[in-house]
Amino acid sequence: MTAQRPDRRRVLAGAAGTVLAVALRPAGAAPLPRTETTESAIRRFAGTSAIRPGRVTLDLPPLVENGNTVPLSVSVESPMIPADHVRRIGVFNERNPQPNVVTVHLGPEAGRAQVATRIRLADSQRITAIAEMSDGTYWSASADAIVTLAACLEG
Amino acid sequence: MARTLINLPKTAKPGEVVAIKTLLSHPMETGFRPGPDGRILARNIVTEFVCRFEGDEIFRAELFPASSANPYLTFTWVATRSGGFTFTWRGDNGFEQTETAAIAVG
Amino acid sequence: MPRRSTVKPLALVACLLCGPPAGAGDGAPVDRRSGFDQMSPELRAMQRDDTANPGMLAVADGAELWGRPPASGKPSCAGCHGTAEAGMRGVAARYPAWDERTHRPIDLQGRIDQCRRERQGGEPLPHESPDILALTAFVSLQSRGLPIAPPGDTRLEPARAAGRALFARRMGQLGLSCAICHDDHWGRRLGSATIPQGHPTGYPLYRLEWQALGSLQRRLRNCLTGMRAEPFPDGAPDYTALELYLATRAAPLPVETPAIRP
């Protein structure tokens, strides 16, 4: 009765609670139709280029307390010099109504490829960050977030 | 005018990488959410943020309905010389706001 | 969202049925803990950093209102009280307090509105309106880090006792009381959220669910809705009574305004 940090057992209990809540959702509450597939949005960002895993670090809390505001940060291994830097970072979701999360444009004047923002997650899902480098290569990382439901909402 | 909070150091050494943090008061209404009467509320979001130093773009972000209310963005900049930053947010319904900040490098 | 609110009471019942009670309703937690301690490291960091805390947007609005003279031409808040940093330090930690004019307890929002109406010749600021929340947050920020210290004024005792009784009273269709969750089951899970002890340390606070700053009264209405009880009418003395008891129950935890909560 004293543990304040979620230990494994509590996290599991929480996840079970989420499953229960999801199962209890009325059939009419299906996810909203999506405006575009994630794959299509990623292709609009990266064209036909290969996207390789690596060089990108994506941080977001694994257990999200409220999907309205989820802290997200992305960093990319890069010297950030004119000859070798990150040009863009695109972040994509799987289960929001619209697949784009944010796209940032950087250059060597940033010194570091490190950005942070806050995002909305409509549901538990995988988030993917893709970096476009100045040599035209694309690198990516993904992270899963479990979105829990806040208690005692406005009625 | 929407309230903004912009945080960066007042001074920096040449070559130092400084962190810039920005917060803007804005509902970022997604356009996917029903209002109290059950009808979908019209989208009202910020779609673009640009930071310039002495007129040159140093950072730009395209925002979508997946951004939280009161959008928060942090990024970095290598201190080269003293000068002024502008921060511009643009969005739906003609929203546009520009704020300024200065830094002394030396 | 509507689909969530249909789920909430069922999840809540499921939670309370599945776990054995941790206490036997033997009163308020002795080891007081702020809900801050139960948040993820990310949300704690958001609250701690004034350049990242979205509640500071409203605090900045409040600071501007503090110095702006009202349309009546009478002095601004600063005109009488001086800088809030000096004049308002510790004030929020002592509310609700006894109001000599109405002979009733009054909370900080009520006091600020009263001052505005009676001394500044201003229009009443509706409860929960952005301006009153901003001013209350700015005034409360001046007490950040100071222990909550409700006044010992004996005239407050009847209302405090009424608040204590309300806290323990079973209400609503689920037959729950405040105490069942926040005295007996804090630290356990309600659905997937951790139940806090329910100390009002950071109001007005930025609740991620609201995506805005809100008052303790708004939070109490959310609790009542969650219990499937009918919220008290706006401005009902029941809220002030509960606020008084909660302040006593939370003391001496430090003021955190503007706090972040999920």
UniProtKB/TrEMBL annotation, chain A:
<protein>
    <submittedName>
        <fullName>SoxY-related AACIE arm protein</fullName>
    </submittedName>
</protein>
<dbReference type="InterPro" id="IPR016568">
    <property type="entry name" value="Sulphur_oxidation_SoxY"/>
</dbReference>
<dbReference type="InterPro" id="IPR038162">
    <property type="entry name" value="SoxY_sf"/>
</dbReference>
<feature type="domain" description="Ig-like SoxY">
    <location>
        <begin position="44"/>
        <end position="152"/>
    </location>
</feature>
<feature type="signal peptide">
    <location>
        <begin position="1"/>
        <end position="29"/>
    </location>
</feature>
<keyword id="KW-0732">Signal</keyword>
<dbReference type="InterPro" id="IPR006311">
    <property type="entry name" value="TAT_signal"/>
</dbReference>
<dbReference type="InterPro" id="IPR032711">
    <property type="entry name" value="SoxY"/>
</dbReference>
<dbReference type="InterPro" id="IPR030997">
    <property type="entry name" value="SoxY_para_1"/>
</dbReference>
<dbReference type="Pfam" id="PF13501">
    <property type="entry name" value="SoxY"/>
</dbReference>
Automatic annotation (TrEMBL), chain B:
<protein>
    <submittedName>
        <fullName>Thiosulfate oxidation carrier complex protein SoxZ</fullName>
    </submittedName>
</protein>
<dbReference type="InterPro" id="IPR014756">
    <property type="entry name" value="Ig_E-set"/>
</dbReference>
<dbReference type="InterPro" id="IPR014880">
    <property type="entry name" value="SoxZ_dom"/>
</dbReference>
<dbReference type="Pfam" id="PF08770">
    <property type="entry name" value="SoxZ"/>
</dbReference>
<dbReference type="InterPro" id="IPR013783">
    <property type="entry name" value="Ig-like_fold"/>
</dbReference>
<feature type="domain" description="Sulphur oxidation protein SoxZ">
    <location>
        <begin position="9"/>
        <end position="101"/>
    </location>
</feature>
UniProtKB/TrEMBL annotation, chain C:
<keyword id="KW-0574">Periplasm</keyword>
<dbReference type="InterPro" id="IPR025710">
    <property type="entry name" value="SoxA"/>
</dbReference>
<dbReference type="InterPro" id="IPR036909">
    <property type="entry name" value="Cyt_c-like_dom_sf"/>
</dbReference>
<dbReference type="InterPro" id="IPR009056">
    <property type="entry name" value="Cyt_c-like_dom"/>
</dbReference>
<comment type="similarity">
    <text>Belongs to the SoxA family.</text>
</comment>
<keyword id="KW-0249">Electron transport</keyword>
<keyword id="KW-0732">Signal</keyword>
<comment type="subunit">
    <text>Heterodimer of SoxA and SoxX.</text>
</comment>
<keyword id="KW-0349">Heme</keyword>
<feature type="signal peptide">
    <location>
        <begin position="1"/>
        <end position="24"/>
    </location>
</feature>
<keyword id="KW-0808">Transferase</keyword>
<keyword id="KW-0813">Transport</keyword>
<feature type="domain" description="Cytochrome c">
    <location>
        <begin position="158"/>
        <end position="250"/>
    </location>
</feature>
<keyword id="KW-0479">Metal-binding</keyword>
<dbReference type="Pfam" id="PF21342">
    <property type="entry name" value="SoxA-TsdA_cyt-c"/>
</dbReference>
